[in-house]
Every structure is written in C-alpha cells, then in structure tokens.
Predict the 3D structure of the following.
Amino acid sequence: MEKEKKKLDHELKRLCESFEGRAGVAVRGLAGAEEFLLNEEESFPAASVIKIPLVMEVFRRAEEGAFSLDDRRRLREEDRVGGAGALQEMHGGLEVSVRDLVRLAVVISDNTASNMLIDIVGMEEVTRFMGNIGMGKSFLGRKFMIEPLSPVNVNYTTPLDMTVCLAELYLGKVLSPDSSREILGIMRRQQFQEKIPLLLPSGVEVANKTGEIQGVRHDCGIIFIPEAPVAITVLTKDCADGPRADRLIAEIALATFRYFSGG
C-alpha cells in the first residue's frame, strides 16, 4: 500500500509540474485518514467553486428558521449578470424559490441566481461561515460577474479549504443529514462534466462543482467510490490553455480514483 501511495504522490506531482500554469491539489479519503496534498494552502481566485459554501450557508440559515427554502424571490432587472446561467434570459418579475435558486447556482452555475442567494444571506456571513468550518483562507468579497477580473475584493480560496468544505458536507458535521443529502444530490446533477468526471469509468457517481474565469479552471467534488469515497479539489490559475487545464483535472481525478478503488 505504501508503494501505491508513493506512486500517486509522484503522479500528482508529475502532472502538476508538467502543466503550463499553476495547480494545487487536496485529496482526502472520507472513510479513513489518507490525504494527498500539493500546493494545498496556496490562494487561488475562487471562481464558482465558492458557491458550495454559499449554498451551505443558505441551508444553514433556513434550518435556523431565517427563511424557508420554498420562499420565493422576485427577479429584478438589476439582478441580471452575464456568464453562466439561465435567469439572465428570463423576464423581470419572475418568482423563483430559494431552493430553485440553489439548484440553478450549482447545476448550471447560474451567476444571477448565485447573486440573489448572496442577497439573502450576506457576503460577510458566508465568509464567517467558511471560517467557522475550517476554511480560514477563503473569502467572499463580491458578487459574481461584477468586474470579475478586478483585483479589488477578489473571491479566493485554497485547495485544502475546499476539500475541508466537501468533507464537512459529506460527513454531516455542519448541516442536518437531510440538508447535506439534498445539497449532494444537487451537486450530483452538475451539468459541466469536462473535468473531474471526464475520464472516470461509466457509472461512477460524482457530486462536483466547477469554476472558471479567465486563466482559471477549477473543479472540486466527491467521488463516490464504494467503501472508499474521496473528496478532491484541483484548482488552477495562470492557464493559457483552458482545455489543457480541464484535462489536467480529469487526469488527477482518474489517478485518485485508481488509488482509492484499488486499481
């Protein structure tokens, strides 16, 4: 087993060092204590992976009774932003439940829906929540697609922070079991499949959330390997070739799957 562990360590290092850009990896077995880490505490622009703790804070506040996930929010003209999503194409005045805003934010990374969720819970509260669950190097300082390349109040995170977040979600340490299951179920319906899931064998379940802005490609999620589920985060930056970065993430996910599944 030690030989296989060293082999995966070497493979992750080889893949990242051959990549034309910067990459960080944090892998954690959820049925044991094994970890594989590379540049795990380095800061990266968060892009849309930070929508996972945003959604978790929405569910936490709903559990406290601040609002119901079935409450409806009205789409305003000023809510519309570009990038991924469908709400920007919908008519003003459309009413959408909080639960559906969550689904849109995760499954198709809808930026308008995500910003409406931020309005519900607040940016400072999301950052505080992240700190409380062990994401001490993560920060949500602005909405999505609001001057996304500006260096001011940039959203950032680390590979280790995101894997800690995934582990907390999977192990049910932060939210109720029902809330945790619902969020993971939504993540399982992720429509962007060109990163972590790409090279995995057919039938392997993945609950993941991608993120992309200029020069940045991310994915983080849980690979549901029977008896050996694993949380994995791969963050990249300074990427000149986006598809190559996607391929790097997919290759790291495949190497991780082979190790934890026993080949």
User: Anything to note?
Assistant: The chain has eight helices and nine strands. Residues 2-260 form a domain with the Beta-lactamase fold (CATH 3.40.710.10). Residues 242-260 form the longest helix (19 residues). Residues 21 and 100 are 36 Å apart (CA to CA).
